[in-house]
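Subject: Sanity check before I submit

Could someone independently write out the structure tokens for this chain? I want to compare against mine line by line before I put it in a report. The sequence has 358 residues.
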Amino acid sequence: MAEGDDSEKTEEPTHKKMQEALEKGQVAFSREVTNFLVLLVLALNIIWFAPSYMKHATLSLRRFIENGHDFVLNKSNVPNLLSQTMLDVAIIMLAPIIATIVVALASSFFQNGIVISSEPLIPKLEKISIVKGLKRLFSLRSVVEFIKGVLKITIVGVGTYIAIESDFPKLEQLADYDVMAMLVVLSSMAFKMVVAACSIMLVIALVDFLYQKFEYIKSLKMSKQEIKDEYKQSEGDPQIKAKLRQIRMQRAQNRMMQAVPDADVVIRNPTHYAVALKYDMDTMPAPLVVALGQDHIALKIIEIAEENDVVVVTNKPLARSLFSSSELDQEIPLEHYQAVAEVIGYVYRLKGKTRRSA
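---
Independent answer below. Compare away.
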């Protein structure tokens, strides 16, 4: 199976892989969410602010009706009238246009939060390649996106049609209504269409957002080998780490064995455990553990002790307890003071030393 085959990538992406994708600006992005937010902003503008916009538009255009006799249309003033009218309309539409642009730009933030990356801005030859551009244009993905667009338009169209179907008889009688009644009917139908379109687009946006998230995670999936390689890069090769740990343990063991000849006593059980203790009444508040081990290490400690005339005392329960509760190069635990004191006293008497009271 070829390296990098998608069929091998069965593992969820690691945190490091996800972080690298974010740094490259690769995020899950749904255009349908952007489309829905833009539609929602436009709908809210129509529902909430349309009367205000119409009022401003009426006031701006009233002068053409009330003072129509004052306007002389000629080559010199027509451009001025058109530019002034367009400016008035632009001012009225400025707020919804700005709101729509802001929402469209903020759509990525709504979906992924703040993502700062300069990599998408770096020019790449494949982005400006005509051949690759044509391939993308006529790729299977483009066909799928086109079909999705047609289906979306169809679904929204059918949904809005169903929403206003019950109002069709009113349209046939619209010519019999006065202006205000006509506006009420049309605004009611427009409201139903907007609500229907937004509701359908919300469902489409949610489905597409979840799908894009799924595809995004799928695109970042890793093979078991990639996870192993990443672990080696971030944590180090496990074999090397094990070797280094073995070397450190060997060096610590060597240092420990070098301290055995200076010990005052080795307490053993009789071959399974061995603990070497050193004690100086003038400088130490309690005996110090200079070496400890079990099985073959215990035998080695005992061997070195005997070669260097260090007293070896057999005390099975004390040896086992000291081994279980003591730390190398640390004082013995308080609960063993009495038992160890008796052993130390025995060693001193054996060597003919005079014990001095503390």
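---
OP: Matches mine. For the report I'm noting this point. The chain has two domains: 11-231, 257-351.
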